[in-house]
Amino acid sequence: MKKVSQEDLEANLAAQAREVGIDLSNADLSDIAWHGLDLSGKTIAMSVLRDAHFSAAEALHGCTWIGNRIENCRFESVLASKSEMLDCEFKACTMHAMRFFRVDLSRTVFSSCSFVDVDFSEAVTIRLRFESCNFVDTRLTKDVLFTGTDNFEFSAEGELEL
Length: 162
Hints:
By secondary structure, this protein is mainly beta.
């Protein structure tokens, strides 16, 4: 896994905006300062993001994350609509005041994560799993608003299995 510097990441994001980006796969992005970076429409695959803080200043609208490992990261009021976060593993992350509108979370796993005021009701949830997660006022489906600690799994059809 190659270590990516802040400068290289910012150059890559600018190049992706011009549709000439270099490959941002299999990268260690653990030392990146994400504040103010716009990841809208950008692709990051098979990479590691660690100890990052994403806030309303960063946008994940229309981004594509495939097979990433996201560890100990905080997401607060981040715009993440119409994105793909496929086959990702979120571990010990915190999400607050987020709405996953038309976000494809297929085969993604959230492990030991905390969610406060998060809405998954309009996300694609095919084989989505939550393992040992803590929820406060979290909408898992249109009909299920949950507070507590539990495990949840969605079927191959995207239905919550209770």
